[in-house]
Structures are given as C-alpha cells and as structure tokens.
Design brief:
By secondary structure, this protein is of the alpha/beta class. Helix content is about 35%, strand content about 25%. It folds into 2 domains: about 210 residues, Dipeptide transport protein (Rossmann fold); about 60 residues, Gyrase A, domain 2 (2-Layer Sandwich), CATH 3.30.1360.130. The chain has 7 helices and 12 strands. Strands 3-2-1-4-7-8-9 form a 7-stranded mixed sheet, sandwiched between helices. The chain binds zinc ion. Zinc ion binds next to loops.
Amino acid sequence: MKVFVAVDMEGIAGVVDSSQTSPNGVDYPHARKWMADEANAAVRGAFKAGPTEVVVSDSHGGNGCRNILAHDLDRRATLLTGSPKSLDDPHGLSADFGALILLGMHSRNKSLGVISHTVHGLVVDEIRINGTPFGEVGFISALAGHYGVPTVMVAGDDRTADEAKDAMPWVKTVVVKWALSRNAARTLPPEVAADRIEQAAELAVQGVEDSDRLVVEVPVTLEMDFMNAGCADAAAKVPGVERVSGRTVRFVSEDFATASRTMSVVIGQGWAVTRAWLGR
Ligand SMILES: [Zn+2]
C-alpha cells in the first residue's frame, strides 16, 4: 500500500503567525524545519505499519509549496514539491494511494483556530459544499474520497481536530497546540509533537481498514462568499459560474475533482482583483 502525507504549515507545532509561514518572515527558517520534522515523524510511523511507499506533499502555498527542503526529508520517502502538482488536486494525490495523512492543518475561516482561513485568507470568506461550510481538511479529504482514498489521520491545533472529527468521526487526530486566539496558542515542543505524530501515524495506517472515505454527494453544488463584491465580479466571468448575490457565486460540478478544478479558477479570479488593489 502507498501512503500519502500532505503537510500544510499553519498547524505545525510552534507556528502561530505569518512571520513563520511566509518566506520573508524572520522565523520562517525554523518553521520550515519543524514542518519537515513533523513530516518525517509521520513517515517513520507509517513505515512501521508496513506500507510499500510513502509520498510527502508540501501543501503550504506560502512559498509556492517549496517549504520542506528536500535534504531534510527521510531517505525512504519522496517529496512532491512546487505548484501546481496536478490539474484536479493542488496536493498531487491520486487513486493509487491507500491512505491519506494530513499534517500542519488549520481550521476554516471565521473559526477560533490558529491562522484560521479557507484556501486564501485575503480572498475567501466561506465556502459551502452542498450547503455545508468546508475547510481545507474537508476539501483534501473529499478529493481523496473521490479517488477512493480514506483519510486516516489529521494533525493541527485543537480546533482543526474538532473540525476533522465533525466531518470524519473515524479519523485519528493529533493536537499539537491549543488555540488561544487566531495568532496565539499553547504549543507542544516540536519534538514532543513529532513523537505523538509518529505513534498516531503507525496506528492510523495499521487501522486503515476501519477508516472510511469522505464522500460528497454528486452533483456537487459549491457556493463561495468572497471577502468583497469585486472578487465576485471577476469570478462570475468564469463560464458555468452564477452570481448569487453581491459577494457570493455558485456553480454545480459533476464530481468533486471537477469542483476542485473550477474552485481554483474562481479563487484565482478573486485573487487577481485583490492583488491589483494591494498593488502586488
Ligand atoms: Zn498553508
């Protein structure tokens, strides 16, 4: 069996601020090392459960998904680095994997989690799939579900663990920090977080038969509230996307992979508008 490990950055132990998650931030070099350490802990744990292959995907967009330095990775794993990785899935997951582990995850926008946001913090206010608000744990897991891959484990702050359990009661969670506010937490030291991730990854991969897939009903109706109406002006130009109200658009897709692809185009439209305002 092949195991896929997707690693975001906001939910890594010790990380609470953009000075750690942005490449120009003073603490970024430390945070990218902690990110690699958590990934390696999951690789060690997964291999104890006996898979044939473990692939790690750098899933933090902050530095173009090039945050984990390849020389920091466990020799037995391979690394998906850079962006975009595939047309349907920004993380590069496909149907030939047997289990998905999510590390460094954060809760969705408007929740009280550490650096909570939904895909793009300057662009997206809320995304609803078939009427239910979704965060990134849900997106990646639903795409995995589309491919037939079960999500077996999620690590991040306490709010992210709650969000994951709500959507996937079977999933094993590791809490590496407890949110005090959006930019403050009580955190485990990275070494302790890594120990817990290693143990949980072994048990999660061993117990893959008891895990389920997150399956979203088709056709998929996706509604997106942008931060402002200008983003929706631009998004509504995408064929098949309907303007619902001032800052909300909606589209319907035949399956989750297609929804994921359209979602990235729609968010890209919103980001182009926001970026122009910011003069970036
Ligand atoms: Zn991120």
